[in-house]
């Protein structure tokens, strides 16, 4: 049903393990509310970028989960992760899914809501 290994292999042949995205900075400081709104807008429109809705759903669940659970989600959904931070993924049919860093982690210039 799924592929033998849902993640690309590392140089030693072992599957790549997901890692947290590297720290990043948004062009202007964001509040938690603004970040949440950006994330909701992305996930609401993501299926319109192409690919399968169930893969988008799995990617969202993985993006919002702890690393161990995220790994299990992408493995069970047959998602091929080409970047360890999940910014670029493929499904078993080769459709590409690109995730912006703001859905995967918080920026270093996050500010408190008023």
UniProtKB/TrEMBL annotation:
Residues covered by region (Disordered): 1-31
Gene3D superfamilies listed in its UniProt record: Ub domain-containing protein, DC-UbP/UBTD2, N-terminal domain
Domain DC-UbP/UBTD2 N-terminal: 16-113
InterPro entries membership: DC-UbP/UBTD2_N (IPR032752), DC-UbP/UBTD2_N_sf (IPR038169), UBTD1/2 (IPR039869)
Protein name in UniProt: DC-UbP/UBTD2 N-terminal domain-containing protein
């Amino acid at each position: 049903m799924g592929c033998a290994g849902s993640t690309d292999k590392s140089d030693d042949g072992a599957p790549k393990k997901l890692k947290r995205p590297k720290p990043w900075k948004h062009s202007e400081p964001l509040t938690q509310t603004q970040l949440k709104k950006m994330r909701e807008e992305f996930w609401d429109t993501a299926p319109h970028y192409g690919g399968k809705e169930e893969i988008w759903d799995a990617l969202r669940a993985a993006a919002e989960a702890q690393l161990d659970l995220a790994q299990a989600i992408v493995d069970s959904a047959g998602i091929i992760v080409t970047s360890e931070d999940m910014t670029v993924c493929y499904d078993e049919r080769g459709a590409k899914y690109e995730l912006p860093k703001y859905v995967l982690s918080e920026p270093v210039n996050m500010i408190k809501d008023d």
